[in-house]
């Protein structure tokens, strides 16, 4: 059974979350272009062993707005408030949610084990600057496919062939994808059209991580660096870099999976497969 609850963050913002399962507390923190529901099947696959708390990050889903002072610190405060309220000592962070998770581990030594799934850290200027202005302008003009193409090219989440295709063709294909996804989305499943504005804020979080790598040497929690062999090379490079600085880390590359692996099955995820690796890590003595 899934129950709905909420917690109040340091600045007064309400963070809403689903609770399911039984056992030690585990927060599942979603990533880019997602809400908590996007990873609900992953939580369900873990619920036989853990009490899973699945929040909507601020500005998304049922949680409160970003607020005027939004940034990575606000996200850390949100996760810290949820951990404090629930007593959970484990976190699975997905994509940009993994950035928030790692930064929270620095501020909260009580965290015992952390799973970081492909955090898109900006290592050495690996993400281009200046794309947010174009993205915001296209979004304001109602050109959602164009805005998503701008974001996708900047964050390099699409396959390499996207970078050599004509932009007009990319926008056409994206518009077709949006319509297809809207028809296929199940109950409670957010659509990419609805989530498009959130890409600005995840881009802001990533931008704050530039020249940030050495700070993670102080993380005391055990960390599982999790990724897929079919994910973009720059995301795999981040895992390699973190492997070199985190004092208590191990890494697993899941064969044949990509950046969508944690998502619900309808969104091309493999939640059961990912849950196996997470369970193995969290239950190990």
UniProtKB/TrEMBL annotation:
Domain AB hydrolase-1: 26-276
Protein name stated in the entry: Pimeloyl-ACP methyl ester carboxylesterase
Matching Pfam families: Abhydrolase_6 (PF12697)
GO molecular function, one term: catalytic activity
PANTHER family, sorted: HYDROLASE ALPHA/BETA FOLD FAMILY (PTHR43194), PEROXISOMAL MEMBRANE PROTEIN LPX1 (PTHR43194:SF2)
Upper classification of the organism: Bacteria, Bacillati, Actinomycetota, Actinomycetes, Streptosporangiales
């Amino acid at each position: 059974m899934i129950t709905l609850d909420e917690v109040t963050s340091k600045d007064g913002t309400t963070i809403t979350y689903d609770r399911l399962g039984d056992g030690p507390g585990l927060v599942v923190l979603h990533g880019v272009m997602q809400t908590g529901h996007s990873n609900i099947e992953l939580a369900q696959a873990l619920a036989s062993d853990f009490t899973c708390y699945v929040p909507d990050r601020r500005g998304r889903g049922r949680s409160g707005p970003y607020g005027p002072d939004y940034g990575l610190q606000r996200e850390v405060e949100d996760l810290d408030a949820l951990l404090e309220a629930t007593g959970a000592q484990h976190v699975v962070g997905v994509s940009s949610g993994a950035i928030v998770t790692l930064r929270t581990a620095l501020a909260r030594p009580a965290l015992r084990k952390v799973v970081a799934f492909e955090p898109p850290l900006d290592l050495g200027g690996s993400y281009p600057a200046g794309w947010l202005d174009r993205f915001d302008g296209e979004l304001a003009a109602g050109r959602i496919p164009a805005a998503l193409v701008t974001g996708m090219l900047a964050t390099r989440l699409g396959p390499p062939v996207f970078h050599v295709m004509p932009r007009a063709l990319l926008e056409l294909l994206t518009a077709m994808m949006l319509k297809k996804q809207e028809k296929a989305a199940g109950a409670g499943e957010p659509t990419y059209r609805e989530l498009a504005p959130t890409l600005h804020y995840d881009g802001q979080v990533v931008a704050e991580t530039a020249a940030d790598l050495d700070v993670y040497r102080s993380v005391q929690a055990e960390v599982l660096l999790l990724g897929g062999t079919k994910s973009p090379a720059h995301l795999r490079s981040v895992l390699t870099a973190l492997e070199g600085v985190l004092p208590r880390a191990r890494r697993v590359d899941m064969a044949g999976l990509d950046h969508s692996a944690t998502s619900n099955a309808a969104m091309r995820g493999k939640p059961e497969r990912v849950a196996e690796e997470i369970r193995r890590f969290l239950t190990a003595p």
